[in-house]
Amino acid sequence: MQTHTKEALASLTAALALIGVIHSGIWFTMFGTPDLMVLGFPFHYFWLVAGGPVAMFVLYWVYYQYITSSIMEEKKQLKTSTGGVGAADDIGAKAGDDDD
Amino acid sequence: MIKPLQQAGEYPFQETFTDLVIPIGIIVVMFLVFYGISYYMKSNIQGSDDYMVAGRTIGSFVNGSAISATWESLATFMGVVALMVQVQIPFLAMWTNFLLSIPLIVILYGQTLRRLGSYTPATFCKDRYGNTMSAVMALLIVFVMLMYALGQFIGLAQIAEILFGWDYTLSLFVIAVLVTGYVVIAGMWGVSYNSALQFWIMLTAAFIPMMFVLNQLGSSGWFFPPLGYGDLVPDMQQTNPGFFDMTFDTRWYFAMFLAMALGPIGMPHLAQRIFTSRSVESGRKTVFWFVLVTGLMFATIYSVAFAGVYWLGQEGFEVAEADFDKMIFYLNFAFSGNSITGYVVAGAIAGGLSTVSGHMLAISAAVANDVIEAFEIDVTEDRKTQFGYIAIIASGLIVALIALNPPAFLVVSILWAFAISAAAITPVIVLGVWSARVNRYGALASSAVGFLTVLVLSPHAFSGIGAGGEGLTAALGIDAIMIAFPLSILTFVIVSLIAERVGSLNVDPESNRNLINEMHGYPDDDVDRFTSAVPLIVLAALMLPILWWGIQPW
Prior knowledge:
heterodimer, A: mainly alpha, two-stranded antiparallel sheet, 2 strands, disordered C terminus
């Protein structure tokens, strides 16, 4: 699979997963959540207040790892193989830059 | 549900300050610090790049805190608590959607536009779609930012009313002068560091006083307000049995997702913060800090709303609907007195300043950079910066004039801005980044259809024409998004693909090749990327059931 296809799929998957974890607090409730209390709160309330944001943090970390290690590495190799033509990462970077 | 009184005032608890010395002292010191930071940072401003995106030097921790403050706004202290008190858990579900916006901005376009060196989304539109779309986008940005800033000005004026007992108009114009002066001096450099400080003032102003409140309400977990009040839940379920009910049907939450998650994605004052990052990598890392600190702040604010409902229920007090915005102050007056409530007020002001400064800088960048470039007006760098200052002063005056006749709830104009952004701005930016097949004709048509649909179907411009929703959904104008968003995407895809086939329009997807490769960080190797029409067609097909769902009676 080409790098840009992987990047697009990773971004789409990450976006849908983030939306999913926040919305699960709503959907579980509407379609029947187990009568579960967490730290004294009904599950859906706990999820919206704390569970969802924590899950969001973890999911973003997975996305971040994939993009910075795998995708950015492949982009570097692409640039090397094309002799650094265009030097795309330098464009727009000004003071203090260490782009990608 | 709290039963509102017919009129505000004359409550059996403290409503305003009885001693102003310490509260005013806190607020004056806070303003001096903000102005001091702005003045110190002013020396860094050499040109428009410094003024609008702080020279692209902001690190991830400062940026994460600054984004959080800009994003949370004064509404976190006032509007959110008010709607949580009135709407209860459904509003929590709605607001949590909002948390998605910053990660989605970074994933979907923040890092690519930062790489491109954009000032605002309109700068990107100039490169991607040409001058006409750039001008349209700049005008949309100005409109949306004015609507958003409106809510902040109203809230800040209400605080001045509470503090000084001035009438609303005087409060409004004093606030307008103070805020505009602050932003003119600061520029993005001062605003970024100030906003980071403002976040921590906001968090401590919500967190620490809530420890006292929860302790006095009898919660054993008072030392950690975000999650420490679970032992009050059984009592809450007795006094307010419906507090944890989700109340509305599935479509309500879906409409909220469209407005609250996809709307802020198009908000330039949030995207602009990512553009200030010192690198693309730093921009990505900003999300970690944002989720961490904002999650903490929001969980704390939910505890305020919970405690407000709980306290009113326990005491049997009733509060007028128009006063729900002041609930956080009533709670602190009741449990902590004047001095601590003074710090809470300072936190609310910090939130308002942070957000409204972001709005004004977004307006400034749109006028001083994007409009000038779109119309190809030849001006010097100094003159461009001067236009930026003028735009900020003009926007302060316009917002103050509109705010003279404010809507009932502080959040109303903000939610309207979100709906317009979701329908008219977000699709144009996100699809422009991820597909080489969309073009200027589709973008122009999509923005026009999205904007006009929200304008016509929401109750704020043309009352009497609705999208089918009733009650709160219709009153907030959120139901319009269920029609406007899918229509906008369908228009974008269909018009773009048709325009490719009309020879006289000269649309060539390959003409975007270099730009697309550049913004995604690929080499300029003449390889076509993101050129398939299939994802666009799938997306358009997915919009059909959403549109059908939206036009059914609610």
